[in-house]
Amino acid sequence: MTASVWMEGLGLVFQPSVLLFLCAGVLIGTAIGALPGLSATMGIAIMTPITFWFEPVDGFAMLMGLWNAAIFAGGISAILVNTPGTPASITQSFDGYALYRQGKGGLALGVNVIFSFLGGIISTICLILFADPIAKFTVSFGPAEYFMLALFGISMMIAVAGNDPLKGLVLGFAGILLSCVGLDPILSIPRFTFGSTNLLKGISFIPVMVGMFGIGEVLYQIFCRKRESEKAEMEARKVNLKLGRILPDRKKMLSLTPRCIIVSLFSTVIGAIPAAGGDIASIICWGNSKKVSKHAEEYGKGSVEGLAVSSSANNGVIGGAMTTMMTLGIPGDAVTAILIGSLTMYGMQPGIKMFTENAVFTSQIMILMVLANIAFLIFGLLTAKISAKVLNVAQPTVWVAVSILCVVGSYALNNSYYDVLIMFAAGLLGFLFKVFDFPTGPFVLGLLLGGMLESNLRRALVMSKGSYDIFVTRPVSCVLLIVVLLTFLVPVIKAVVKNKTSKRKEV
Asked: Three-state SS across 126-156?
């Protein structure tokens, strides 16, 4: 696109009505993202019909503000109540909630908004500069590549398993088995439904996530509650929140930024792959960052670095998803699938025509994404202290509020009471996992990626007529296979080297 196109788009974006709709979208997105179960996809789906009454640039200003803010805001509830507001915020709960419990809630919320902004702005810059190359690369992905990507994500269950990899593997495979419930992805034959029509569509991921991280945490806190120490804990929490700083110091920012820039670039590539969203990106980035970190032992126990990586990865996928959608007309994730419908309603066809016939509007969308990141950065920093004080109430009040939000979020997904029952069942399971010290991350990871793993494995074998050569003869698939093998082998090699080193020291 030419300079004149960008200048025209810039002039149209900086109109009072456009900026007003953008700020409204950020406000709505923050509220939706912070509520457990009310995902960015749901928010976009709800608001899209309303935007048809507006001018296209006004409507998309609201949608861009909502989307970017909702992904960032998912980390708020992950940090404050250990319940991810969106699926992309799963790994933020690993370190964010631990930081909050340590009296560093303000810092955790500040890191969340700052590095969510970093991931989003870098991803948007990549969209502006490299839209065509990234899209051309990801369009070549077939079933073999998708299978390897899912396998790569599954391999992260070791990283999120904590100190007991065996328990993590067991629960990871249990999650994969649960993902098999429903219709067979190839033959459409019912599996493990026990005659129930509600199970034909499978086990929905969001109710499981909300129940396991929300209701499960509430039940566990009730189980471990000590009345005599609750008052002292509340006073300690008040002091911690009052004294906690929001912005990381200069040294911490300088140490975190290079790693998070790399994570943001990697997440952009993942986001450009259709069906690979922020949840997959955050898991992959968090797991690999832990492996190469000098402070790997802190991950999952309150690592600022781990939280920063997760935050960058979440918003980093947005620019990649938009790249695939705008240049090829292929949705990068569920949100961009809805946005394709929005563009169609406005009489625009996603694809190469977006950069020719609708070049000005395309430039407006990209500029709006930049402004949306700036808007939620300012809003998030200004309201971080307020967010941190929200839970400065008695524990029973918090438990009731979280439970209500979990029920509402689960029901709102499909307007189904069955999802609420699944949520409560997952909550009970999450409670038992915490009581008996089983990691919940691998289970959720297996459920999330199990369907993608199975369906693409079978499609790839159909294409190759049963030959497994397809996974090594296709360049991208072969590279991903090598990365997966290294993922499993590197920890083993490190353990062997560490064991030998310790034996030499003993001698």
From this structure: HHHHHHHHHHHHHCCCCHHHHHHHHHHHHHH
Answer yes or no: are the C-beta atoms of 144 and 162 closer than 8 Å. Answer: no
Which of 122, 132, 178, 139 is CA-nearest to residue 450? 178
The answer to whether the CB of 338 falls within 8 A of the CB of 325 is no
| 457-478 tens-digit pLDDT | 999 998 888 888 888 888 888 8
> Quick one: angle between helices 250-272 and 304-328, nearest 10?
30
Element (H, E) at 191: strand 190-191
Taking the CA atoms of the chain, what radius of gyration do you get in angstroms? 22
Q: DSSP string spanning 349-410?
A: -SSGGGGTTTHHHHHHHHHHHHHHHHHHHHHHHHHHHHHHHTT-S-HHHHHHHHHHHHHHHH
Task: Take residue 456 and report the two structure tokens written for it.
Answer: 């693409």
Strand partners, 190: 183
Share of the chain above pLDDT 90, in %: 6
Please tell me the distance from the alpha carbon of residue 138 to that of residue 121, in angstroms, as a whole number: 21
Confidence class for position 121, pLDDT limits 50, 70, 90:
very high
In the block, tokens 């004080």 appear at 389
- 399 token code pair: 């438990």
CA distance 35 to 51: 22
* Residue type present at position 151: L
Instruction: Give the 3-state secondary structure of residue 86.
Output: coil
Average pLDDT over residues 224-251: 58
What gap in Å lies between CA 342 and CA 353, rounded to an integer? 16
| Residue 52: count of CB within 10 angstroms of its CB | 11
**∠500-505-507 over CA atoms, to 5°?**
95
Dist. CA 505–CA 122, nearest whole Å: 46
CA distances (Å), 131 to each of 140, 271, 316, in order? 15, 12, 14
Separation of alpha carbons 179 and 171, rounded Å: 12
Cα–Cα dist 61/407, whole Å: 31
Instruction: Copy the structure tokens of residue 468.
Output: 């497994």
> At residue 430, what is the residue type?
G
